[in-house]
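quick one before i forget lol
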Amino acid sequence: MGFLLTLLTDTEVAFLRPKCRRLFGLWHPACCRLVGLKHILVVDDNASSRELVRFALEPSYAVAEAVDGRDAIVQILESPPDLVLMDVQMPEMDGYETLHEIRAHPESSRIPVVAVTAFAMLEDRQKAFEAGFDGYTAKPINIAALRTQIDSLLNTNEQK
């Protein structure tokens, strides 16, 4: 499999992407591995926010979306992503509750999770890290800083 990844060109990746979407409805983790892309799950109840993050991260990453915490848990347990970007303020099951649930399952407990929030005070950042988030980004999102944080967390996680 590793050898195959080195043989795929950008053109071939572009060719495979819509086929994976058509077959699976999203970038299936098997497709991600085939073309060497990391799978990121964006969890946010706001469709516009999810779309903005997707637009900013594709095509460098395979991006899937969850509309709330419960949807995120289902998707994570079905096909664990390499990283989760999660809005903290969501109805029914907020980001903190969802993170607690992610950490409770052995198969998802080591997935890096980044808190995404409109609350940008130092106390909010501290609260997120104390709760167990691996990263933190404030809205409006600084795309360059987010990509740097994602790359850092993915590289750190690979070394574990």
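fyi The longest strand covers residues 39-43.
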